Amino acid sequence: MSENYLSRTERKQVHKNEKPNTKKNKKQTSFFRKLLIGCLVLGTLGLIGVATTFFTLIKDAPILEKSKLVNPLSAKIYDKDGKLIYEYGKEKRTNITYNQLPKLIENAFLATEDARFYDHSGVDFKGTARAVLVSLTGNYGSQGGSTITQQVIKNYFLSTEKTAKRKVQEIYLAHKLEKRYSKHQILEMYLNKIYLGNRSYGIRTAAQNYYGKELKDLTLPQVAMLAGLPKGPSIYDPTKQQNIEKATERRNVVLSAMYQNKYISEEQMTEASRVSVKEGLMPPKEVNEMPYPVFIDAVVKEVEKELPDAHIESDGLSIYTTLDPKAQKFAENILNTNIISYPNDNFQGAFTFMDTKTGEVRAIGSGRGENKATFKGENMAIELKRSIGSTMKPIFDYGPAIEYLKWPTSHQLDDSNYKYSTGQKVQNADRTYKGMMTMRDALKMSRNIPAIKTAKEVGISKAQGFAEGLGIKFGKEVPESTAIGTNEGSPTEIAGAYAAFGNDGKYTKPHFVKKVVYPDGESKSFEPKSKRVMEDYTAYIVTDMLRSVVTSGTGTAANVDSLDVAGKTGTTNYSAADVAKYGIPSSASRDSWFAGYTPQYTMAVWTGYMKNGPEDYISSKNTKIAQQIFKEMMHKFGTNKSKFKMPKTVIQDNSELRVKGAKQESSPNVNTNTVIQMETGEKDQKQEQNEQDKNQQEQKQGEQDKNQQEQKQSEQDKNQQEQKQSGQDKNQQEQKQSGQDKNQQEQKQGEQDKNQQEQKQSEQDKNQQEQKQGEQDKNQQEQKQGEQDKNQQD
């Protein structure tokens, strides 16, 4: 048979293999068809979902009102009761038309803000992608992701919140604006609306405020400087000395962008970049008609911090503040009238007056005379940085000791010679030591050494954590001297910390704004939530000790009879080098503080001088001025005469307080001003011993005298007592009263004289008594000893 011959069975198998697998192919075709259909369905559903979401997001988008596009909106500022007090940004604006716009200014802003302005239809997706790519590579250029059209929409109609809804509405309205208005009209809207710092709204106003020029007269460096301002008006404002370096860098970025877009030559760019940004600048514009300028300044700065993307003066914001107009007016009068007698015009003051419970600031004071605060100037109430002195002691020392160690107010502290761990000696203000004293007295008398020892026992890091919970800020290092207030702070910071003690241990950040409402109805709350930062017993015990400061301690000048006041003084000294340099007294103070509170209001006051000089120091008689300012404000506005309520977690032992459940302390070194109630069930013998200790302290003898009396009972005394008649011994004990013992102690004879009398012959005893004890002893022997003397003679 041929090798090529195949059997019938083999031929069938070959034929079978050559046939296509139709079942398998059908299955594969069915799978791909289903996948394609699924994708189409999902895609359709996705598109429907996106479309639904898009229309949901834009359905309540603001209407493009022409009046808003033509006239930028000022911010309306309201007081605590919702009454309009000022329209911020309502100054006269001078608009321009496109035909009045110099080409140089148009080119500068287009190169900086939107180089493809004439190529896109409102949203530049290509430009946005490029901006993202550039930012990812770290090469930050002049442009952001928003077009000029989008910026018009943001500035006129939308809030600054960065949400998906807001972004969708921005894109939708930008397209709508491009359809309704020409490119030239949109550019006009932008340049007439844009805020450029220095109270300048629109490019023409900015040219006048910065350079006193019309637009056509501006130079290339000046135009580039103005074009760089929209990104950060307050950061790049060249009228502020601290901004010069950043303003120069930003101006040069604009020049570079103009060169890259072929609007200027390389030579023009180089030459313009060499010009100082200060060249040709006008002085900052003064605003005298603004009511409550120092408070509105604090309001604006708070809004700028919380809403950095907002244009406060042109976004049409409604700002609801915490201002009490009457309190603010009186605050300004305290510093700038004769309500209080100030030593000279250079003497300065600053303070914050706030609600103890809510943290809402009602009024602030900042500066006197030439240092009187102006809008957008230095606001000492919120920006001052001066050492806070002993106002730190409740915050860093005694508050933490009660919180973490549960010390009672009677806890004993040693005011004696002490050094920092560095070896430097610690001094009290009066350069003396008072010995053992209670924690209450240590705070009341503002002793430095007990305060530092307390912070050390608590632990510096723990004390720091406690203080940070009260809004106190620290540098990288926290030295031991922080315990007595070498760190710096502002009146607003200190007021916020003290308010927590008066608010049951809950801290509420001091604030000037309640809420901001945008033109589209969106609102932003500025009211912080209160948070518990200490136990209620800590807050109340500190408060009770601070009551002692104003009733009988260093802060009596701040006390208001009708109010429950708690507070603390604080002073700082000049260095030895400054004392020698300026020839001022060593007792002179550099800063004088008072921080105090009632259940209704809290206030922190700083007084001092901004510069050192031979006449610029606080004398001892003027350290009370801070307390006087506090008293005037509280007396005027303190209407709530309620008392601080003691919580159930605190136990009162006579005049002292302790934490309920904490281990009770007892000490033999009780100050005469301190009464410690003995534990229930103590033995009578311990009570008698404490009474003896008290008498010995008054007689300046101490425990040593007691030990001598108890120990000098020798066997010889016992034998003599047995030999002598019991009646005689009785009479001697009854007759030798405290007066004889007192004289013997003062003459340093003590029990030794008594032993000598019993051991020596009666005549010798009598002679010694006559020679050493004087007429008093002689009279006592003649009148009271009687038969005893006769027996001794025998």
UniProtKB/TrEMBL annotation:
EC number: 2.4.99.28, 3.4.16.4
Biased composition, class Low complexity, residue ranges: 722-742
The protein, known as: Penicillin-binding protein 1A
Lineage of origin: Bacteria, Bacillati, Bacillota, Bacilli, Bacillales
Domain Penicillin-binding protein transpeptidase as annotated: residue spans: 349-634
Chain segments annotated as transmembrane: 35-58
Gene source species: Bacillus mycoides (strain KBAB4) (Bacillus weihenstephanensis)
Region of interest: Disordered: 1-26, 655-794
Extent of Basic and acidic residues compositional bias: 8-21, 680-721, 743-794
GO BP annotation list: cell wall organization; peptidoglycan biosynthetic process; proteolysis; regulation of cell shape
